[in-house]
Amino acid sequence: EAQVTQNPRYLITVTGKKLTVTCSQNMNHEYMSWYRQDPGLGLRQIYYSMNVEVTDKGDVPEGYKVSRKEKRNFPLILESPSPNQTSLYFCASSLSPTGNEAFFGQGTRLTVV
Amino acid sequence: AQSVTQLDSHVSVSEGTPVLLRCNYSSSYSPSLFWYVQHPNKGLQLLLKYTSAATLVKGINGFEAEFKKSETSFHLTKPSAHMSDAAEYFCVVSDAYNNNDMRFGAGTRLTVKP
């Protein structure tokens, strides 16, 4: 079954404690991206990756890092989380960003206290 | 840069009545347009997409949308609402001029009353 898998689904952490949210897709997609969803703002792109070892900033990259060492995995790293990063996070993948359907993970609800 | 405006943050309809969710876009190039649906505690699922083919696009679950370039609109419709349609709906635009980045609208929450 084609899918994008994120882990964990829920996470509560404290300010400053490094965390990683994993994302894996099994569709051999080249393009992957991370979004955060906040009420009234829709989804905003954090980072995206066009292929292995190729990543770039989206609209709201501050406080986040990503890596793309393998095609299937695209982890999101928060080196020093802060309360304003409390949000719902989605990973997505697609064949390419040009007019193709994006497949989304189930989401990770992160709370930073 | 491209952008999307969903004109209603919340729409409430009765079961069996038509659904209209409005979306206006701004794009400096030939856009691709999408509608995604998000059910509670779920990820986003593609309903339909427009990529410069037929202007009337049919999607899953009886939804359709019409691309109107002159009005820069891509409204989502369904003739008869079902209880299972209650969800949040996102209109999305992307275009090659802006590196094909997907821009999401703020979302419209659809409530269906019995």
The Cα radius of gyration of chain B reads 13 Å
Oligomer: heterodimer
Based on Cα principal axes, name the global outline of chain A.
Answer: globular
How many beta strands in the DSSP annotation of chain A? 11
What's the overall average pLDDT of chain B, rounded? 91
pLDDT under 50 segments of chain A (min length 5)?
Answer: none
Shape of chain B: globular
What does this structure look like?
- The complex is a heterodimer of chains A (113) and B (114).
- Chain A has strands spanning 4-7, 10-13, 19-25, 31-38, 42-51, 54-57, 65-66, 76-78, 87-94, 103-104, 108-112.
- In chain A, 0% of the residues lie in helices and 50% in strands.
- The model of chain A has no long low-confidence stretch (mean pLDDT 94).
- Chain A starts with a strand and ends with a strand.
- In chain A, the strands form 2 sheets. In chain A, strands 2, 4, 5, 6, 9, 10 and 11 form a 7-stranded mixed beta sheet that branches. Chain A has a 4-stranded antiparallel beta sheet with strand order 1-3-8-7, with no helix packed on it.
- In chain A, a hairpin with an 8-residue loop joins strand 9 and strand 10.
- Chain A is an all-beta fold.
- Chain B has 114 residues and is mostly beta strands.
- Helices cover 0% and strands 54% of the residues of chain B.
- In chain B, strands 2, 5, 6, 10, 11 and 12 form a 6-stranded mixed beta sheet that branches. A 4-stranded antiparallel beta sheet of chain B has the order 3-9-8-7, with no helix packed on it. Chain B has a two-stranded antiparallel ribbon with strand order 1-4.
- In chain B, strand 5 (31-38) and strand 6 form a beta hairpin.
- Chain B is globular, with a radius of gyration of 13 Å.
- Chain B starts with a strand and ends with a strand.
- The mean pLDDT of chain B is 91.
- Chain A binds chain B through residues 4, 33, 35, 40-45, 48, 58, 90, 92, 96-99, 101-102, 104-107, and chain B through 4, 6, 9, 32, 34, 36, 41-46, 49, 51, 90, 94, 96, 99-102, 104-107.
